[in-house]
Amino acid sequence: MFEFVVGSPINIALILGAVLVTAALLIWVERRVLGFLNERLGPNRVGPFGIAQSLADVGKLITKEDWIPPFADKLPFVVAPAIIPVVMLLSFAVIPLAPGIGIMDLNIGLLWIFAMAGLGAYSAMLGGLASNNKFALLGGLRAAGQMISYEVFMGISILGVVILGDSFNMREIVEAQKDQWFVIPQFIGFIIFVIAGLAETKRWPFDLAEGESEIISGFNTEYSGMKFGLFFVGEYIGMLVLSALIPVLFFGGWYGPFGWDFESYPILSGLFWMSVKTGFWIFFFILVRAALVRPRYDQLMNYGWLVMLPLSLINLLVTGAVVLAQGN
Amino acid sequence: MISALGKQLYIIWSQIVTLWLVFMHMFKKPDTVEYPDVMPYMFPRWRGRIILSRDPDGEERCVACNLCAVACPVDCIALQKTEDENGRWYPEFFRINFSRCIMCGFCEEACPTNAIQLTPDFEMAEYVRQDMVWEKEDLLINGTGKYHDYNFYKIAGKSIGGKGKGEARNELPPIDRRSLLP
Question: Which of A40, A41, A291 sits opposite B22 (nearest CB)?
Fold first, then answer.
């Protein structure tokens, strides 16, 4: 058996393929699971269990008329939908899937993810601005405000993990969790990170940037065809990134619970546990979408700045103080 | 302060309960009826495709009174009255434009002879719009529909060929007015 090295071409090809296929499948998984949660069946007619629904969707999106409104600002209008999938794919590059499986082994992996998530805000912002449409402008405005303000304490909530793991490198953070998952000492940080992550990927219940019942479709109102599809796929890759990031930071990454690892096959064991944990979080996000209602925009902002930011700062201070005290 | 904190905790708790309750719906049986594969049960009084029924003797029930056409809110019924050699009235043509029909059932309620009835059939899609216009021979069925022993001319006092005055059900023979002398 040949050696798996982080960043080898076969690694890159396999991970890229897996991410794209999973993101496409998520379109079907989300609708199907949402259907079961609503006591419906969901799409089940294309292929076995409707698994080819994503193909049908993509076929529909590609063959639809790709229309650029005459009043739109052409260049940003075309560039905006391409930003979000690219940025989300780039941020998946630093996520460690198993020992030796990954695309990049950056020593600033976490910062890289935040940089990419920050760039992701441009997608919705530019799309909303370039559409030259009132609803799209409102959606872009909401997306910009929401993503920028929630990124602040998303970053701060993670710093506790960085203190405990003593590194920005994702692999070292995972290896630091071999004996104890960070969800136990960093429970508040974990809750804040999940909420901020939901807001960051513009997923329900924080989909104010789209807000169908209020502003048609928000920043992507004027988009059609595959341009809309790119926003769509970008959102699902973002969901995948977030679902993989939570296990890496808080649930021990590729380590199984209670030391249930297959020591002789570390790669297989790591991939298995990562898939299980990522799948769990994907399911959780779909459940949140089915269950919770969308807050008002001022509630979202108040909650973010007045509750989450102080909580995350307190969490950071307490963690730092405890680590300092123990370090003596 | 304490009560405000308690309220916030209660809000968080209610979100968790919501998540749990919605999650439990995962294990319930879906309500979906997969229609083209499984035919749903259609209730007998469902307001679907319109038919014209016949009386138990096999004659047309419709007497071309035009009440259904008057009651129709979308004017989708058109008919013309004519008369046969026995004096029975019947429609010369009876036309329903199903591309306009809204299945409201007003025609059925207006009909004095139970001739026009709505049935549980709803699969009426056509590729050509003109095929949505149904003529009398398309509408007329061989049975009595929902009312099995109703026969208008056996109940009404109108005399037709083969049934004179006073021969209807529950009807006395006509009185000779000239014999009513005191």
Answer: A291
